[in-house]
Design brief:
By secondary structure, the chain is α/β, with parallel strands linked by helices. It has 2 domains: 346 residues, no CATH class; 59 residues, no CATH class. The protein has 8 helices and 20 strands. β2 and β3 form a beta hairpin. α2 runs antiparallel to α5, α6 crosses α7 and α7 runs antiparallel to α8.
């Protein structure tokens, strides 16, 4: 049958509104994207969607010990298990509730599927003039083998407020899962938002993660994406700047081994003047892993004095590893400062020779140089526990014992 038929059967059990049915029919008319679609040229879903899946099945509970194991230890938490919100912390000036329906601008098939059938997710509202000092940790646990789960989340940050989030999607008691995850963030005037995504799930987990960020005047939004685990990961990250003096910062690190696959698609839409965007994605690919990067910056006609920077740097540490990189600029204004760049290479042989001549073993020398390569993006993370975790996961992936104590 495959996932399409599983989804059809599931939709028949839902009482869809006419609007949602229309969106679902639109998804069915084209189905999942294929490599014939430009945005999916290097990313095939064929094998993934050909499999049978359970849809939003409920499994067993998650113990306190399991939560502790996969948590970074922050006191303010939101916890989902198999699509059900089981726990949330009361936070001053922050409203947290379960899924609430909302419209988005997504017109692609994956967004339509999410919008039409999703019934799980969170709604977070941060009051204006609020400084949320502690990061908010959001944990999504899956306990059902080969479960297809969708989440639809929305965050609204009031004017002159600051908040930080850490998100993790984790399988517990099972190895395989497929998650279609969507999050919309609305940043009010003069806000500062940081969202950290730790993507380190089990070896047969699949994830499509879409995040749309809408910014108003004088707002700053930082999105950090750390990819270490999972067999298939696709991140769609879209920024829309709707006011002057907005700043959008994106940092991404992909450290892949075995036959892992990770695809980062980014889009920054500079719709207002005097704004900035900074984009830095680092990739390290070993064994038979594969990476994809497609980053697009658009500067609209009246968006003068834009400063936009985009960088994608990659290390291939195996002859069987591959990366497809496509940085893009689309500029319709003339008073701008925009640049993009891409590098694909191997470790510097001269640097390796120098380190080995100083008595450092080849494995450790490669690890140190690889860490130095990836650390630039990691060091931009302001949450100390997240930065330290990234360094430890990097050390583990490189199979060396490096000292990253704080």
């Amino acid at each position: 049958m495959g996932l399409i038929n599983n989804i059809k059967s599931y939709s028949e059990r839902l009482n869809l509104s006419s609007e949602k049915q229309e969106e679902f029919n639109s998804f069915l008319s084209g189905g999942f994207p294929t490599i014939k679609d430009e945005d999916w040229k290097y990313t095939s879903l064929k094998k993934l969607v050909a499999k049978e899946y359970a849809i939003n099945q409920k499994g067993s509970s998650v113990s306190k010990e399991q939560i502790t194991e996969h948590s970074l230890g922050f006191s303010d938490k939101i916890i989902f298990v198999d699509g059900v919100l089981i726990s949330k912390t009361e936070i001053s000036n922050v409203s947290i509730s379960d899924y609430s329906d909302f419209k988005s601008c997504g017109t692609d098939a994956i967004s339509k599927l999410n919008a039409s059938l999703t019934t799980s997710g969170f709604t977070i509202t941060v009051d204006k003039n609020s400084i949320i000092e502690k990061p908010i940790e959001i944990l999504f646990f899956n306990t059902v083998e080969n479960n297809f789960t969708q989440y639809r989340n929305t965050i609204s940050v009031g004017e002159s407020s600051e908040v930080k989030f850490i998100e993790k999607i984790q399988n517990v008691g099972c190895n395989s899962s497929f998650t279609n995850h969507f999050t919309q963030i609305s940043c009010g005037k003069n806000t500062n938002v940081e969202y950290n995504k730790i993507q380190n799930n089990t070896s047969d987990s699949k994830l499509i993660d879409t995040m749309d960020v809408y910014q108003k005047q004088d707002s700053t939004c930082n999105i950090n994406t750390l990819i270490f685990g999972g067999s298939f990961t696709r991140n769609n990250l879209n920024f829309e700047q709707n006011g002057t003096n907005c700043e959008s910062n994106m940092n991404g690190v992909s450290i892949l081994t075995d036959s892992q696959f990770a695809d980062n698609h980014t889009f920054v839409d500079h719709r207002s003047a005097q704004c900035r965007s900074n984009e830095m994605y680092k990739g390290v690919y070993m064994d038979k892993s594969k990476g994809v990067f497609n980053g697009k910056i658009m500067v609209r006609q009246d968006s003068q004095k834009i400063d936009a920077f985009q960088s994608n740097n990659n290390l291939l540490l195996s002859e069987d590893a591959t990366i497809d990189s496509k940085p893009q600029l689309e500029i319709y204004a003339d008073d701008v400062k925009c640049s993009h760049g891409c590098t694909i290479g191997q470790l510097d042989e001269d640097a390796l020779f120098y380190m080995r001549s100083r008595g450092i073993g080849i494995t450790e020398a490669k690890a140190v140089l690889t860490y130095a390569f990836a650390s630039e993006a990691i060091n931009n993370i302001s949450v100390e526990k997240v930065s330290l975790l990234a360094k430890k996961l990097l050390s583990k992936k490189l199979n060396v014992d490096l000292d990253f104590s704080v």
